[in-house]
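Reviewer 2 asked us to include a model.

Predict the structure of this chain.
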Amino acid sequence: MLGKAFAPHDSCNSCNLVLMSAFRQSVEAMIPALRRYARALARDADIADDLVQDTLVRALRSERLFLGGDVRSWLYTILTNLNKNRRRSLARRPQFMPLLDNNPDASGTEAEGRDIARALASLVEEQRSVLLLVMLEGLSYREVADIQGVPIGTVMSRLARARAHVKASLEGERTALRRVK
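Predicted model (structure tokens):
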């Protein structure tokens, strides 16, 4: 990925062209991972594709603002923030819940896939995004903390809660609600 090796040593045009080309190649290489994360996060292919497109547009428009470092974390941060904004705007509108597909003839793996999707869907947004970034995308706790703008302990806590909730969901247990005084 882009890092200090691509930092221009002066303001010559050829250095800037090499930097821009390397940046664009790094962004392009991240598209499959961005799509995977967006689809898992949004749970809708069309919305996910829109999120990825908006992420790419913002990244390419802000290319000159990128100061080096990890392009992957930067792109995940943009996508995460766009998704948060999308969810905030949706919270202001009435929502319609789709009917769940309860096909009794579904194969075991199909049913398991639906169970996992249902367990992920029932997570709060912060827990789901941490779980996806760590488990699906293989990011470190530090990278996820930077992307989400929270302390690393918060990432660890959200991940532990998400794993426990998914496990309980898959085992058919009801998760206990904590009483707040």
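The helical segments are 13-29, 31-42, 45-61, 71-91, 108-121, 125-136, 141-148, 152-170. The chain is about 65% helix and 0% strand. We have added this to the supplementary material.
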